[in-house]
Amino acid sequence: MRKLLSASMMCADLTNIEKDVRKLEAAGIEYLHIDIMDGSFVPNITLGFDFVNAIKAITDIPLDVHMMVDNPARFIDRMKLDKGDVICIHYEADNDAAGTLARIREHGCQAGLAINPTTPLTCLEGFIDDIDMALIMTVTPGFAGQKMFDGAQQKVTEARKLLSTADRYIPIEVDGNMSPENGKKLSAAGADIFVLGTSGLFIKNKDMTVSAEEFRAAIAE
Ligand code: DX5
Ligand code: ZN
């Protein structure tokens, strides 16, 4: 599968969001990653459903919605999305993850399941048929600017092995501290989609297209 970049919109210039969306379009970014946080599942509150719908209305770049939200099923219908978009829920936040993943597919979107750094891969085993993407968190969710945890490369390697038992290719997305160096390691381990925030794309006084090209060059090696 081609390696894809997903821009973490919580790291964008929220005072000029349309300007950044146009820069991301020009940079050829393949997904816009929208972090929804409820202040309960994670100790932070960021972007909401109105933001998702507003961004959806101004760009053709597919959205990659990352729900760091307790009981996410309550909110799926609040987002006007389509088959090119992904809604990703957390295994740790939903005691009926299979039901919510089915709801996401009924809603017409692709379904993703995320696990935190401390959540074992075995938790993904029962969901192979329910998901279109697996999100391996490489930092504890909630805040940008953190450091990737030490076991991330090994975990992605094992996740790729686990997901290869599926009857179709299930991409792995990685999220948190995706610098070119970390991206290179995780790409070699089997990651396909890279969430780029302050470590790899939204860098002060640096052109986004240049940053995206540098990241692509690093993961292509
Ligand atoms: C973490 C966020 C990510 C990411 C931001 O909860 O979901 O968007 O960490 O990118 P970095 O880590 O590079 O600032
Ligand atoms: Zn995220």
Describe this structure in words.
- It is built from 6 helices and 8 strands; from the N terminus they run βαβαββαββαβαβα.
- The chain has 221 residues and is an alpha/beta fold.
- It has one domain (4-220): TIM Barrel, CATH 3.20.20.70.
- α1 (17-26) links the parallel β1 and β2.
- α4 packs parallel to α5 (180-189) and α5 (180-189) packs parallel to α6 (208-220).
- The two termini are 15 Å apart.
- The model has no long low-confidence stretch (mean pLDDT 97).
- Bound molecules: D-xylitol-5-phosphate and zinc ion.
- The site of D-xylitol-5-phosphate has 20 residues, from loops.
Quick synopsis:
This protein is α/β, with parallel strands linked by helices and 221 residues long. It is 29% helix and 19% strand. The radius of gyration is 16 Å and the shape is globular.
User: Could you say which small molecules are bound to this protein?
Assistant: D-xylitol-5-phosphate, zinc ion
Q: Number of helix segments?
A: 6
CATH domain class name: Alpha Beta
Query: Which stretches are poorly predicted, pLDDT < 50 over at least 5 residues?
Result: none
Helical content stands at 25-40%
Q: How would a crystallographer describe the biggest sheet?
A: 8 strands, parallel, barrel
Strand order of the largest sheet: 1-2-3-4-5-6-7-8
Provide the number of structural domains. Answer: 1
CATH superfamily: Aldolase class I
What would you call the shape? globular
Distance between the termini: 15 Å
- The rounded Rg comes to 16 Å
Strand-residue proportion: 15-25%
CATH architecture: Alpha-Beta Barrel
Structure classification: alpha/beta
CATH topology: TIM Barrel
Helix-strand sequence: EHEHEEHEEHEHEH
Q: Mean of residue pLDDT? A: 97
